[in-house]
Amino acid sequence: MSFSLDNYVTVNERLRQALEKFPELRVAEHPPKIVEAGGQLFVEVQMVVRRDPNDLCPMVGFIWEEFPGKTSFTKGAEQPNAATSCLGRILGYMGFGISKSIATQDDVARREPQKTFTPQKPKIVPVTYPDGGPVPDPFTGEQQMHEEYPPGDVTKPQMGKIRALGKGMNVATTKGLCERIAPIIGRSITSLDQLSKKEAGKVIESWLPPVIPNAAGEIPDPLDEEPF
């Protein structure tokens, strides 16, 4: 089943429309909170939108986002995702970008079912000497063969993030990174560019430090409530 985002507008487009109509529009966020409902934790975001600094009837909205997030788009970014959704809905209630739906393109995209992941399959390649001659197996005498993975679709930013996280664990060499990555993705690699985007995301997710609420149940990243 496929989803089309053509009929949905983005939050930034709704905000652009709102600013055209209300040039002095102000947005303020309250510090996020962790709340529990039905045995599940959520990040609660509250936001206030004023048409101008003296607006006597500002728009107020709340959004809950599952914590921790259950997709690669939401896990580790629960608060900003909730804030984006909250702003999009408030602007929708104000009449911006709702010709098709109150939901925004951002909301729909984050919740679109993930495509089934198909792991990379290696090619069986003969082992040769630099001059092209076959390397014999020491036991059978037949030419040695080895598995060779094609380059994956991992992105340069993902590889950079993996290297940065590796340095934080005192693993700076490609060989060392590949050895640490192998148990995570369930196969051996010899270079980072053999990873798929999905595998790279899994590695980054497993190496990122957990986001832990403080004693007050709040995420330790206080937000400035000054309107932008």
Characterization of the model:
With 228 residues, the chain is α+β, with helices and mostly antiparallel strands. The protein is 30% helix and 16% strand. The chain is built from six helices and six strands, in the order H-E-E-E-E-H-H-E-E-H-H-H. Helix 1 packs across helix 2 and helix 4 runs parallel beside helix 6. The longest helix has 16 residues. It starts with 10 loop residues before the first helix and ends in a 21-residue tail after the last helix.
List the keywords.
elongated; two-stranded antiparallel sheet; 6 helices; alpha+beta; disordered C terminus; 228 residues; 6 strands
Please count the helical segments.
6
Roughly how many Å is the radius of gyration? 24 Å
What is the strand tally? 6
Strand content: 15-25%
Write the element-wise H/E pattern from the N-terminal end onward: HEEEEHHEEHHH
| Mean pLDDT, all residues | 78
Fraction of helical residues: 25-40%
Q: Quote the distance from N terminus to C terminus.
A: 40 Å
State the shape.
elongated
> Main β-sheet, in a few words?
4 strands, antiparallel
Residue runs with pLDDT of under 50 for 5 or more positions: 1-5, 221-228
Number of self-contained structural domains? 2
- Structural class assignment: alpha+beta
